[in-house]
Amino acid sequence: MATFLDIGLKEEYRSDEDDLIEDFFIPCFSKCVEYDRCIEYLSINMIKTVFDAYDNFRQGAAKMRLIAGHRFRPADLDLLTVLLSKSRNPFEKRGIKDEKLRLVRKAFERGQIELKIGISNDIKISDTFSEKLGIYRDSHGHVIAYVSTAKSSFDMKKKAFESIEVFTSWGDATRVKRKMQIFERLWRNRVKYIDMHGFEYAAKNGYLKYWKEWLMHE
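The structure assignment produced for this chain is given below.
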């Protein structure tokens, strides 16, 4: 089975020099068994794309842990509410016939996708969780960690101008270990200034908001 060592990664990718989707994201997603991501603005389109395009995710062989900020585009927040609803037939009630979304809902139900929302707990800190960290693991124990400048998860249709700094377990083990520790501390709610909540808790307590900049362009 192919591993990350077969990709031929660069240390940095930039939108003005590289095709970030083709050169970085597609090779990493296609070979990973675990994907961890911190992002300020989460897009449902990203999750749909991954589960539609890659056999390892679609067939349940790869899992995803996501940490997002509490502001969403209205359409994304509405779809997340449906995807994580405990209602038996939320799609029928909303008139949604998107089979890709059904696939994503099943992935949430079986724990293949896990989501936490980062909420500031200190007035000294901006009210938006804005960590931009990603971690891929393959079946051979190799790890790729990256830090991007993008505020939102990638979109196959709308490419943002961004740069990505890449670290590998075989080339920079110390830094990759540090990135993995940072994600785990966030995931386990062991950092200052930010609390991690499940989506249902965040929704019930009024933490989830619309991102006004996106709302104006709906």
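Interim note for the steering committee: The radius of gyration is 17 Å. The chain is about 35% helix and 20% strand.
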